[in-house]
Amino acid sequence: MNWFPAPGKLNLFLRVLGRRADGYHLLQTVFRLIDRGDRVGVAVRGDGEVRRQEPLPGVAREEDLCVRAARLLKRRCGTSLGADLALEKNLPIGGGLGGGSSDAATTLIVLNRLWNAGLARGELQALALQLGADVPFFVSAKTRLAKALANF
């Protein structure tokens, strides 16, 4: 198994721009990567299975973002390969540092390379958006202005 960094993020500011009719708020923020983060372990499997090595405490199997990311990429690129996935969690779940989103983005980026899927960064970002609003940010890995929705 090889290990890959999945950096966290900070919101440098947060501005509420308005509220939609469905109750969601329109937000504007600037995301910046930080040095602290999780680590994603990946090993390619030849049998096509995508498996989590050990369950993530407090996260239901169907909500595991790394597994969801791997399966989404697998469907998109049609590979016969699979992957064993592991996670060294250093960022708190639900702590606002983007740990799960970064883990999913790292999984997409790494498996795109290891499976020789050949998807361009923009294609990975489109897949990433299906996993969560801030996952594409971690695929781009650049400080950037972002617009988002929130229900609070």
Please give a handful of descriptors for the protein shown.
globular; single chain; 29% helix; 152 residues; five-stranded mixed sheet; 4 helices; alpha+beta
Kindly describe this structure.
- The chain has 152 residues and is α+β, with helices and mostly antiparallel strands.
- The protein is 29% helix and 37% strand.
- The protein has helices at 65-77, 99-114, 121-129, 135-140; strands at residues 2-19, 25-45, 50-52, 82-88, 144-150.
- Strands 1, 2, 3, 4 and 5 form a five-stranded mixed beta sheet that branches.
- Helix 1 links the parallel strand 3 and strand 4 (82-88).
- Helix 1 runs parallel beside helix 2 (99-114).
- It is globular, with a radius of gyration of 16 Å.
- The N and C termini lie far apart (40 Å).
First and last CA, distance: 40 Å
Could you report the average pLDDT, rounded to the nearest whole number?
91
Radius of gyration, Cα only, in angstroms? 16 Å
Task: Compute the number of helices.
Answer: 4
Q: Give a quick account of the main beta sheet: strands, pairing sense, barrel closure.
A: 5 strands, mixed
Which term fits the overall shape?
Answer: globular
Structural class: alpha+beta
Assembly level: single chain
* Low confidence ranges: none
Count the beta strands. 5
Kindly state the percentage of residues in helix. 25-40%
Series of secondary-structure elements, N-terminal to C-terminal: EEEHEHHHE
Strand content: 35-45%
Quick gist of this model?
With 152 residues, this protein is α+β, with helices and mostly antiparallel strands. The chain has 4 helices and 5 strands. Strands 1, 2, 3, 4 and 5 form a 5-stranded mixed β-sheet that branches.
